[in-house]
Structure to design on (101 residues):
């Protein structure tokens, strides 16, 4: 999610990207549940096509970008948690390394 504009406390305009493995893929905007979360889709960007004020019957596809207005906290909650990265620390050898000086 990329916040574009903050309008009033807790509300704003943000861009949401629909990733290929998202639950939204294959659902219509009406079935997506966004409206129930107090999120309105202003524009749907699909490749080079821009659909302003899309209807509820539009089916969401992977890589769609939705420009939305609504509760920022609800839009943030749609972001999947990132897996924690493991630290890349090399283990020391069991035997000490001797150097001749």
């Amino acid at each position: 999610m990329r916040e574009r504009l903050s309008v009033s406390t807790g509300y704003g305009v943000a861009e949401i990207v629909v990733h290929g493995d998202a639950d939204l893929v294959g659902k219509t905007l009406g079935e997506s549940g966004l409206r129930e979360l107090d999120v309105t889709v202003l524009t749907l960007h699909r490749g080079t096509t821009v659909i302003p004020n899309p209807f509820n019957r539009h089916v969401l596809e992977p890589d769609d970008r939705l420009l939305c207005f609504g509760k920022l906290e609800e839009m943030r909650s749609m972001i999947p948690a990132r897996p924690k990265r493991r630290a890349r620390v090399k283990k020391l050898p069991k035997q000490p390394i001797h150097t001749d000086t």
Q: What stands out?
A: The radius of gyration is 22 Å. The domain at 2-77 is CATH 3.30.70.1450 (Alpha-Beta Plaits). Residues 72-77 form the longest helix (6 residues). Helices lie at 72-77.
